[in-house]
Write a structure and sequence with these properties.
Helix content is about 10%, strand content about 30%. With about 110 residues, it is mostly beta strands.
Length: about 110
């Protein structure tokens, strides 16, 4: 069982479906990204729950970076920036002490 993400014209994920594994050949079809994309008239990209392709599992609202061939989660806060690993990073590092921390966007700080 494989999962495929459909992208709009801005490379934003609009839907994720379950489909054929890429090694399956059915009625001569073996390129499932192209096949599903042609059916929908959208770009289709494979995604993976165990994050072994395209960085992370795509969800609706995620974006796809065709240059890096990765899915990127939606930006969690206006102040956060995308780092070189395609992860959102707060402007202030999260404390390393034990406990749960939450980002306070208004004050630009981590709180408990």
């Amino acid at each position: 069982m494989a999962h495929y993400a459909f992208l709009d014209s801005n490379n934003v994920v609009t839907e994720v479906i379950v489909g054929r594994n890429e090694n399956e050949i059915v009625a001569g079809v073996s390129d499932w990204e192209t096949h599903y994309g042609n059916i929908r008239g959208q770009i289709c990209k494979r995604t993976s729950y165990n994050n072994n392709i395209r960085k992370q599992f795509a969800g609706v609202g995620y974006s796809y970076d065709p240059n890096a061939d990765v899915f990127i989660a939606p930006k969690p806060y206006p102040s956060w920036l995308l780092n070189e690993n395609h992860d959102w990073q707060s402007p202030v590092p999260m404390p390393t002490t034990d406990g749960r921390w939450w980002w306070n966007e208004e004050n630009q700080e981590w709180t408990r």
